Amino acid sequence: MEQTHPQLENLIAVMHRLRAPGGCAWDRDQTHESLVQYLIEETYELVEAIEAGDRDDMVEELGDVLYQVLFHADIAEEEGRFTLEDVAEHMAQKMVGRHPHVFGDAIAETPDAVMASWDALKSVEKPGRTSVVDGIPQGMPALALADKLLGRAHKVGLLDATAPGAVGVTSEDELGPLLLAIVASAKANGLDSERALRTSLRELQAEIRAHETEAREG
């Protein structure tokens, strides 16, 4: 049978060869933990390529991220834990299950309706989560984490994320210099902007959890 994705199969074969006995000593020495730094670095490089809009850079950086997935799967297969096929099967099942409006009879005709359906299905899949902030990676960059938490606070009715803020900015061209000026002011005064924002975000998460508890008990 003709291969549907011959170049993908070739990349998988390259990975197997590099990590096989007699292959590359560095590749064989890697673990899931040792690869984390490279996964983070490659992800940031991909984001940069996407923002720049350069086709060749995107192809290269997407390849680097894809290679990290293959790398982790190959290590896990060698350890007898799971395979690349397991990863692909799980993701396909997850996407089909999370899109009943495409693969089933449900109706969701707007992005908001799709997200509401997604959240409802996720709550069924992960019943151990008692808060909308459960499952959010705390290691995210502080600004990205702030955006995520503000969205969750809006979702539970703690605040209106669509209301005009205390600082009136209407474009990223305005926002960027403003953020830079805030960081510059903090630095000039010996303050740590990242730590300050993370402290406020921990407080916001506590507020969200308290609001959820009050809503359940009320």
UniProtKB/TrEMBL annotation:
Query: What EC number(s) is this enzyme filed under?
Result: 3.6.1.66
What molecular functions are annotated in GO for this chain? ITP diphosphatase activity
Q: Does the keyword Disulfide bond apply?
A: no
Q: Which InterPro entries match?
A: MazG-like_dom, NTP-PPase_MazG-like_N, NTP_PyrPHydrolase_MazG
Q: Looking at the record's lineage, which domain of life comes first?
A: Bacteria
Q: Does the keyword Hydrolase apply?
A: yes
Q: Where is the NTP pyrophosphohydrolase MazG-like domain?
A: 30-103
Keywords for this protein: Hydrolase
* Alphabetical list of NCBIfam families matching this protein: mazG
**The protein, known as:** XTP/dITP diphosphohydrolase
Organism this protein belongs to: Antiquaquibacter oligotrophicus
Organism placement in taxonomy: Bacteria, Bacillati, Actinomycetota, Actinomycetes, Micrococcales
